[in-house]
Amino acid sequence: MDLVTIDDISDAATRIEGLVLRTPLVDNQRLSQELGTRVLLKAENLQHAGSFKVRGALNTLLAWQERGELPEGVVSFSAGNHAAAISYAGQRLGVRVIVAMPSKPVPSKVANVERFGGEIVPTDDLATTLGELAERHGFPILHPFDQSEVIAGQGTAGLELCADGPSPDLVLVPVGGGGLLSGVAAAVRKLAPSARVVGVEPATSNAMSQALAAGAVVRLDNPSATVADGLTAPFAGEHTLPHVQAYADEVVEVGEDAIQSAWRELVESSKLLVEPASAVCLAALRTGVVQAPQGGVTVMVISGGNADLSRLA
Amino acid sequence: MDLVTIDDISDAATRIEGLVLRTPLVDNQRLSQELGTRVLLKAENLQHAGSFKVRGALNTLLAWQERGELPEGVVSFSAGNHAAAISYAGQRLGVRVIVAMPSKPVPSKVANVERFGGEIVPTDDLATTLGELAERHGFPILHPFDQSEVIAGQGTAGLELCADGPSPDLVLVPVGGGGLLSGVAAAVRKLAPSARVVGVEPATSNAMSQALAAGAVVRLDNPSATVADGLTAPFAGEHTLPHVQAYADEVVEVGEDAIQSAWRELVESSKLLVEPASAVCLAALRTGVVQAPQGGVTVMVISGGNADLSRLA
Q1: How many domains are contained in chain B?
Q2: What is the pLDDT of residues A8-32, one digit of tens each?
Q3: B114 and B181 belong to one structural domain
Q4: Does residue A196 lie within any of the structural domains?
Q5: Nearest Cβ partner of A310 from B45, B271, B313?
Q6: CB 3.0 to 4.6 Å from B158: which of A146, B94, B184, B304, for a disulfide?
Q7: Which domain holds residue A238?
Q8: Are the C-beta atoms of residues A198 and A249 closer than 8 Å to each other?
């Protein structure tokens, strides 16, 4: 298949301009001092609907609209952020959204979908339910990560972080299904060629690491046992795997304790309400599984902010 | 006395450039929809040391340094944010910092002072202890609000919000001793003359409202009984009162329940970790004590992010 290129990402940026926030790249002095590298946070938790996911969702619907193919409705599956994002995008463009979500989701994520008129179908088997929904409604799938337009849309976050800050030496990206890493790596590989781009996933939900090791997509049996609920993809995709192989330097894994403590430290030091999925990057630096470029520039992509406050305190 | 002017604020901006963050002005779509006005947050919770206070602290020390009057040490009093800010500024410029703080402070605020090497003197009478410290050490006072250089420094937040966003119709500012309101109002009055500038203080800690009513500084007996701990100034100042009289349109009061519920809603909707003091502005809009300009632009100045997470959940 054709990989997403910087041109696809630039087109996506033009398409979604004005509909998404150009989120700030926030200096974190406290983490910079602790880690010996200038830490900048690409704060997608401030994005509309609370995560980077609106970038890919809007780019996909708008690309379909350009081709005269905007459907009446779409179906998808999601831990919550993609569901909210496509609900948001669908509401803007008059497209019905039906989405399979885990039967025990994070409550704030359910509220965030309902706020934008999305219809939730609870399930314990996301992939199977998605197939059933697609068949029943005859709507196309707007995939949470495994679609070229989605990857190009997520890549606009990478385009912005390269344009808005100093040239990065290291870019860290949380990995669920790998859409964000695919897009950001495609952008950074071109715009900051000397930067290392590293994906981070929970050791208990490591679909991309398994896919990279096997050289093929691997379906996980139980990917939900992580505090980083946003990263519980049941597989890395047919599209995202080759993007990560081509554009990223490495994908690493972090444990649950490291994520939990990094989460709290990230919120306290950054003054940003982030979800635990966003803390895997800090966890990777603190556990030493990734070395920070001493005296250099490290960008962590903060994926989202749809966290339940009660779990943080 | 001479009031701080836009020229003083511009000088301050030049002086502190590169030492403070130009904090983002963050669109809040959820509050915008709820309130019928475009809500922008000037996110000073992301500022170094966690609040706007570094602006005034650095401007004062740097102005003294320019005049060849940089002291060996300074003394002050603070609920916590000013203490952290002058500790931060003092550490940068090699100035010792000794600060009187409430004997039962917010724990995260104590940690934030100690992180930057500030020396804390716990007290139940801030003003008296400050006088004692000044006498004992022979150091000048770097006042939390009642000093021209401090007011000019805080005003740089107003300068930035006018420069970085659409022209505001309403600017809301939390009020403790009134330094932030004084500076921001001075800037906005000049740069966006048609905007209303409104200060908001807790009804239980309303030194500025009392001073405005009396036409003179009023000392409060017990100003600490508010969840908005950052706004417990024991008096509005000899400097800040005339600035507010000259530059601000109004100062309003909000109750404790309104602050508490606005705090949670502000954090959840903005994805910013803010301290409760920052929520008084939202409380003022939600209680109707201030009318939002329907279809217009409302900027809320988010004063700081030094909150204890446990109090939020």
Answers
A1: 2
A2: 999 999 999 999 999 999 999 999 9
A3: no
A4: yes
A5: B313
A6: B184
A7: 6-48+151-311
A8: yes
| A110 CB burial (10 A radius; 0-12, 13-18, 19+) | middle
- Written as one letter, the residue type at A145 is F
Question: Contact A267/B309, CB-based, under 8 Å?
Answer: yes
Do residues B87 and B119 both lie within one domain?
yes
Which alpha helices (H) appear in B47-80, and where do they start and end?
53-66
Residue A143 lies in a domain: no
Radius of gyration of chain A measured on its C-alpha atoms: 18
* CB contact at 8 A, B302 and B43: yes
Q: How far is CA B23 from the centre of its chain?
A: 14
Here the ipTM equals 0.92
| Residues of chain A found within 8 Å of residue B50, distances taken between Cβ atoms | 271
CA distance A21 to A54: 10
Answer yes or no: do A157 and A214 share one domain. yes
Q: Is A53 a catalytic residue?
A: yes
Whether A175 and A42 map to the same domain: the answer is yes
B129 and B178 belong to one structural domain: no
Inter-chain residue contact B268 with A268, CB threshold 8 Å: no
d(CA B9, CA B180): 12
B32 and B81 in one domain?
Answer: no
What number of C-beta contacts closer than 8 Å exist between A and B? 61
pLDDT exceeds 80 at position B168: yes
Output the CA torsion sign for A136, A142, A146, A147.
Answer: positive
Closest chain B C-alpha to A273 CA, distance in angstroms: 5
Is residue B190 part of the annotated active site? The answer reads: no
Find the closest chain B residue to A305 by CA distance.
B271
What is the spatial distance between Cα A261 and Cα A249, in angstroms, rounded to a whole number? 26
pTM of the shown model: 0.94
